[in-house]
């Protein structure tokens, strides 16, 4: 079920660095190196595949932008927040700058 804007905003209060942009929640991270950025994306890829819920990921040198949305639902759902929280936990294993 797609979350309302109020529900999304309430959840984002507990997720520093995440924003709502249209129909997605977004976080940009900067890693210490290009290999760290790629290692992060690789970890996210395996976790997302296991959950059968995949974010949009953009890599630009040491910067990774994650966008989560449930496309077949047409917006942001609890699945997106679960994926975002898991991604945040994985990011905490790396040295990052927001």
Architecture overview:
This protein is α+β, with helices and mostly antiparallel strands. The protein is 41% helix and 24% strand. It is built from 3 helices and 5 strands; from the N terminus they run αββαββαβ. The chain has helices spanning 5-12, 34-51, 78-91, and strands spanning 19-21, 24-31, 56-60, 63-68, 96-97. Strands 1, 2, 3, 4 and 5 form a 5-stranded antiparallel beta sheet that branches. It is globular and about 35 Å long. The model has no long low-confidence stretch (mean pLDDT 95).
As a whole number of angstroms, the C-alpha radius of gyration is 13 Å
Helix percentage:
40-55%
What class do helices, strands and sheet pairing give? alpha+beta
| N/C terminus separation | 30 Å
What is the beta-strand fraction? 15-25%
Overall 3D form: globular
The string of secondary-structure elements, in order, is: HEEHEEHE
User: Major sheet: size, sense and barrel closure?
Assistant: 5 strands, antiparallel
Poorly predicted segments: none
Number of helices, counting only DSSP H or I runs of 4 residues or more: 3
Mean pLDDT: 95
Number of strands: 5
